[in-house]
Write a structure and sequence with these properties.
Strand order of the largest sheet: 2-1-10-11-7-6
Structural class: alpha+beta
Number of strands: 14
Shape: globular
Oligomer: single chain
Length: 510
């Protein structure tokens, strides 16, 4: 990996991106064995294809998936762009929905994009407080990644150990990533980050704290950039439901053979971060700011699930058609309900982006209340959309014989005959749509659409806490008492008291 002072031609195509992942000295374990080449591994390759689609979209729809960088003056991938205005935040969401439609899975770059934007404003405010130079360093790193068109992974979630204890109180200090030693050139870190999305498919990792810290946790308040192939990193690939189907012959049973997600555990053992790539070191009181700003961006980033939902709704409508049931009123009603739920996710996410406000650094931050409402919807609504899709698919979705049987010279003709739906629809087409619905609601891509929707960027209670902090009950009680005649106040006083969330709601400078 070159130094950040070097400038070379950036990655410009999906093919060039895939080639950039070859030949790296990565230590990746899967099924207890060292993976020789992640690019050609059949379980890993679909996740690489999903990231590659972000490069393809940038070429096909540049106004949607790219932006002019204020650091380089060049057009850069939107996943590497710092939001300079409200429209930048909105276009992130529109791009995310489009990619969800194109891949039907997690395309893995949102964490890096949201970490970039959160860290940009946080480093600015650390510098203002302590007269450090983290922000200058970070701007230089941003320009470097933009010039090369790198993929950035965000490493935030520690394994956490005993949840009742702070990082410094753990029986094993390595259960949270922390600094183990220092030199004049930089620091060394040890610990582990769990279920890290797209980490192997990235070029750099941004290591960040995972929670609010105290003075006793200073060695855990470390933020830095590390090459994915840095010495001392071990990756252990995460299992996904039905993942080994991608290692079988054929492409029907996998459901979505070309695209998939990726998670791995990342273990750091005395990994070096040079001073020029350290963006927080001991400023523990800013850890909560970084985490909260990251989750604000990332929770409204879950509008990507509405793009995936578009695919699932389309699959449900298609299987109803293939079954000859698409004209039934209850089928239409279920498709309407799925669409209503899906657009509710998108509406709250895009509203959070439209209601963005500038931070002190100038970068725009999404509305925290609506971002949390978006993510809270995502912890619930995809499950109901999936239930309705399974309802429309029927039981064959989970009892369908294998592709090998369908291709068999002995029994294949029997399956061709007895798995037929409408006479004008090929049996294979019916099988493929059933497998896609299985893939998205029970199989490999249910990881990203369901369980990750529940726990990614914080589990449901995390959103409820943030919503509770901003619901302004006292102000709402004043409104009710005024109209009920319980406590008369001047209405102009109530208007003057509009602040916080309602201050953003009624802001006329939009």
């Amino acid at each position: 990996m070159q130094t950040i002072d070097e400038v070379t031609e950036g990655i410009s195509t999906a093919e060039a991106y895939i080639e950039s992942l070859r030949g790296r000295a990565l230590k990746v374990y899967l099924f207890g064995e060292l993976v020789a080449d992640i690019v050609e591994h059949p379980m890993i390759r679909p996740s690489i294809n999903a990231v590659a689609e972000t490069f393809q979209l940038a070429l096909q729809e540049p106004e949607l998936a790219t932006a002019i960088s204020p650091f380089t003056g060049k057009r850069v991938n939107r996943f590497l762009h710092i939001a300079q205005k409200r429209e930048d935040v909105v276009l992130q969401n529109k791009m995310q929905r489009r990619l969800g439609q194109l891949t039907g899975t997690c395309f893995q770059r949102c964490v890096g994009m949201d970490a970039f934007n959160a860290l940009y404003s946080t480093t600015f405010e650390i510098d203002a407080c302590y007269h450090t130079n983290y922000h200058t360093r970070f701007r230089k790193f941003i320009a470097y990644t933009q010039n090369h068109n790198f993929v950035i992974g965000g490493a935030m979630t520690d394994v956490k150990g005993d949840r009742s204890l702070a990082p410094h109180q753990q029986a094993d200090p390595d259960l949270f990533v922390h600094i183990t030693r220092r030199t004049s050139e930089g620091v060394y870190i040890t610990g582990a980050k769990a279920h890290q999305t797209g980490c192997l498919n990235s070029h750099w990792l941004l290591v960040m704290p995972t929670m609010r810290l105290t003075d006793n946790d200073r060695n855990y308040a470390i933020v830095g950039a590390i090459p994915v192939d840095a010495k001392g990193i071990t990756y252990i690939y995460g299992r996904q439901s039905c993942d080994t189907r991608s290692m079988e012959t054929g492409d029907i049973d996998s459901g979505n053979a070309h695209y998939g997600g990726q998670e791995a555990m990342v273990i750091f053992e005395e990994v070096f971060i040079p001073n020029e790539l350290i963006f927080m070191d001991g400023e523990y009181e800013f850890a909560s700011m970084l985490v909260e700003r990251f989750t604000c961006y990332h929770r409204r980033s879950y509008v990507c699930k509405s793009g995936v939902g578009d695919v699932l709704i389309g699959a449900a409508a298609t299987i109803a058609e293939f079954n000859g049931a698409d004209k039934a009123s209850h089928i239409k009603d279920k498709l309407v309900e799925m669409t209503h739920l899906n657009e509710t996710i998108y509406a709250t996410g895009i509203a959070a982006s439209y209601q963005s406000k500038p931070t002190l650094s100038g970068t725009y931050l999404a509305d925290d209340m609506l971002a949390n409402v978006c993510k809270h919807h995502v912890t619930r609504l995809p499950y109901e959309i999936s239930r309705l899709a399974q309802d429309l698919a029927g039981g064959l979705m989970v009892t369908l014989p294998s592709e090998q049987d369908f291709r068999s010279e002995t029994v294949g003709h029997l399956l061709e005959k007895y798995l037929k739906g409408r006479a004008d629809v090929p049996t294979e087409h019916r099988m493929r749509i059933l497998r896609l619905i299985e893939n998205m609601t029970l199989g490999r891509n249910a990881v990203g659409y369901l369980t990750e929707s529940m726990h990614g960027a914080g589990s449901p209670q995390a959103q409820r806490i943030q919503i509770a902090r901003q619901m302004q009950l006292d102000f709402k009680k004043q409104l009710a008492k005024e109209l009920a005649g319980i406590k008369k106040r001047q209405k102009d006083m109530l208007i003057k008291e509009i602040s916080d969330y309602f201050g953003r709601v009624f802001d006329t400078n939009v």
